[in-house]
Specification:
alpha/beta, Rossmann fold, 7-stranded mixed sheet, 6 helices, binds glutamine, EC 3.5.1.2, PdxT/SNO, pyridoxal phosphate
């Protein structure tokens, strides 16, 4: 059974996508629900809010324990931020306390990385590991909404998809640069973008195969 952490964010869209990909799905707001799932989706939303709510709902430590024990987790956008070990530019609350992550995935993310001028954008991405044997690879239509990118990947982390940023005088980028936007480390999968809003099912299918130990 697949859980969707249901504290804030696009829970329903992920539940629908996981169901369409063949999973039984429940919302997770309590410890007992977390205990019942074989894998968990951390939805997109607002990472600072989800961070606070995991503590209010007393889920932070149980989540960290399950992640450390090998539970498969897929985080999209804010969910990627929550899975990251480090945030390059963490938000601070009114008391000056920096937002925290659950961690587990050895990456550093930068929040809202694509900048104010490009709040949201869509693009086609080549994405590794999606095609089943004998099937052709076709690109993923990816929607980015105030998305993070991955600035550092640890040795254990595979990059599954990247975006090329063109040279741009305004940002001082004189040559095109490549940023990772989908990564995997063993049981942990994360994307900067939102496959749950486009009808794309293959990323949820990959995650379900990871839960079943088939990928
Ligand atoms: N910018 C948001 C954050 O930092 C993520 C946006 C999203 O999940 N679409 O949490």
């Amino acid at each position: 059974m697949v859980g969707v952490l249901a504290l804030q964010g696009d829970v329903r869209e992920h539940a629908r996508a996981a169901e369409a990909a063949g999973a039984r799905v429940i919302s997770v707001r309590r410890r007992s629900e977390l205990d019942a799932v074989d894998g968990l989706i951390l939805p997109g939303g607002e990472s600072t809010t989800i961070d606070k709510l995991t503590r209010i709902f007393e889920l932070r430590e149980p989540l960290r324990e399950r992640i450390a024990a090998g539970m498969p987790v897929y985080g999209s956008c804010a969910g990627m931020i929550l899975l990251a070990n480090d945030i390059a530019d963490p938000a601070k609350d009114m008391k000056g306390e920096a937002q925290q992550t659950l961690g587990g995935l050895d990456i550093t993310v930068r929040r809202n990385a694509f900048g104010r001028q490009v709040d949201s954008f869509e693009t086609e991405l080549n994405f590794a590991q999606l095609a089943l044997p004998g099937e052709p690879e076709t690109p993923v239509h990816a929607v980015f909404i105030r998305a993070p990118w991955v600035e550092r990947v640890g040795e254990s982390v595979q990059v599954l998809a990247s975006v090329e940023l063109p040279a741009d005088e305004q940002t001082g980028r004189i040559v095109p640069e490549v940023r990772a936007v989908a990564v995997r480390s063993q049981h942990l999968l994360a994307t900067s973008f939102h496959p749950e809003v486009t009808g794309e099912r293959r990323i949820h299918e990959l995650f379900i195969r990871m839960i079943r130990g088939e990928a």
